[in-house]
Design brief:
TIM Barrel; alpha/beta
Amino acid sequence: MRRAPFLLIDLETDEGVTGRSYLFCYIAAAAEGIARILQEALQVVKGDRVAPLNIADKLERHFRLIGVRGIVNMALAGLDVACWDALATAAGVPLATFIRGAGSDRAAARTVRAYNSNGLSLMSPEALADEAEELLAGGFRAVKLRLGYPSLAEDLAAVRAVRQRLPGDVGVMTDYNQALTVTEALHRGRAIDGEGLAWIEEPIRHDDYAGAATLTRELVTPIQIGENFTGPHAMEAALAVRASDYLMVDLERIGGVSGWLRASTLAAAAGVELSSHLFPEASAHVLAATPTAHWLEYVDWASPILNEPLKIVDGHAVVPTRPGIGLSWNEDAVKKYRINR
């Protein structure tokens, strides 16, 4: 990933507190569309108290006829994260602490395990092995490898090149990004079952929960899905059929912090370990307050525009002690990288 279109959100309140969040928009044109949706949402909630669940319910009713999906869902998730950031900032505590609550019998974790997800995408085995070693900088003890080569032999060569180069106690996650049919996923999954992988992520179409359940039953290597859940109801459907061994959710798709908290409750009730997808700065906070927290996916895409990027120490993301999420924009960098100048 060399370029990533971001939309930065500043939610200003009458009390002078600003809540911040950002969205990864995939394509630049989406950022413009999401910004328009946010302007519409602002007209609906302007003057309301910063109460994320109430705001989410109000905006869901407002956008019901066009559907809270796609860029509408993304916009509302970004607004929700900014609301939670504003609340925690106003309280003067980190978001993780604010979520757990002063009366909680379990303190939020100060660090969360992180794997480096900044590369290993469809290149020669030797290049993959070299990059895998480089990704261990910062003390990482796990990396993610992208699969889905034209043939099983190429998948196996990629896995073995990385696995053989890295120490045995370093985890290797793999991600197919929905590249396979169920039949092909069974074929390839059985072939790589003995390679010591941490998980196989999204081998088939993301919403084929029946197919994913088949893979979960038949394969030894754990199946990981969830980054494409649009809201907690999708997660409920996946849990109902035991579609995977592990789950991961994306703040932008699950419904922001409010959606994450619902998802966290579902995962805890089912006893399923929950990981994050992208947005490591905010995800570190919500994972730190998650009962079944598993892994944080670390990418450094936002670091160039942040005054204080997320710190990684000994393979763990350090949850900032600054109020809220701890986001502040590097205005010179924002000006430099701005899409619409």
